Protein: Deoxyribonuclease
Amino acid sequence: MKIASFNVQRFGLAKVSDPDVLSTLVKIVSRYDLILILEVVDISGASVKVLLEELNRVNTTHHYALQLSSRLGRSRYKEQFLFLYRDDVVDLIDCYQYEDNQVNDMDAFAREPYILHFKPRNTELKDIVLIPVHTKPGDSEKELDELYEVFLVVKDKWKTDNIMILGDFNADGAYVTRKEMKKIRIRSDKNFHWLIGDDVDTTANTSNDHTYDRIVVYGEEMLAAMVPNSAKPFNFHKEFAMTEEMALRVSDHYPVEVELRKTPPFWAVSSYHRRDSVDTQRASDNRAVTGEEQNCNLLFPRLR
Structure:
């Protein structure tokens, strides 16, 4: 199962109205079972619908579903987090919009994480939580440090250690120094594993080689569930033999990706899955008892 994060740089109608850009985006997204798209800025939602329709027109083997956050931001400029996933490969269990309003706490996030809880069907993990990130460049250090608090909330909420933090961290260049990085709790705590190295270029612009985009996993079990050396940027500029001008029409970022190990043989996991079924049912029962609302319906119906 392949997971990715991709800052598409102001994704909206201008992107999907360009046939070459739309075709490239569909080719990129089709590489993944689950992908986070950052910088969705289209207020109408039409661009998301166009992308989903084209994605499902091209992909006849796997159907893609989506999950879209509300519009997030402190000013008139707002963005949305978009998740696209193959619904025959992974099941959406729950979603949670983190609210940055803790008692005696600062307003840390320009765009509070919209967090999804999934159950993969064919990996070693019984579940996985994705915490999306797109920091405001001038506040990157503060926001990245505050992600530790988000992690604690989610870990307690869903009773799982299988947590992945991914997105555009803006943690390089002038935004966050190496010295400042050491103070960030999800960096200093050695239980967090940063899968994209500090010297890996995740930008499509050849004028810089910054490592803005990252994937971070928590714990040894999560790390062991990753295919070794699978975490890397996807250089679509090179892979699709594009000019730099054409690549930058798509985005100034590359996607970053990682692959999860497939499920081991049935005899080794049969008891594990029986326990997992009980846990899933118990979680469902708990939501029914507490009256917790699960507002995770798709924004659009199935489009074929």
About this structure: The mean pLDDT is 90. The chain has ten helices and twelve strands. The chain has two domains: 2-263, 267-296. Residues 45 and 90 are 24 Å apart (CA to CA).
